[in-house]
Write a structure and sequence with these properties.
It is built from 1 helix and 2 strands, in the order ββα. The chain is of the alpha+beta class. A two-stranded antiparallel sheet has the order 1-2. The protein starts with 17 loop residues before the first strand and ends with a helix.
């Protein structure tokens, strides 16, 4: 039944964030506070917001 098929490909349930780098610096907008700078690489189709949520939970 082709009308019941979904478009697109399946996604992996788990992916690995590559080149993860986390550092802190003084926050120039909020005196006496620090800011966290996070960078990483994900495969195409993955959600960075989920990675950030997992880091801070």
């Amino acid at each position: 039944m082709p009308e019941l098929a979904s478009e697109g490909d399946e996604r992996n349930m788990f992916v690995k964030a590559e080149k993860l780098n986390i550092k802190t610096e003084d926050d120039e907008l909020n005196k006496d506070k620090k800011k966290c700078i996070i960078s990483f690489v994900l495969p195409k189709g993955s959600y960075a917001t989920i990675v950030i949520k997992k880091i801070f939970s």
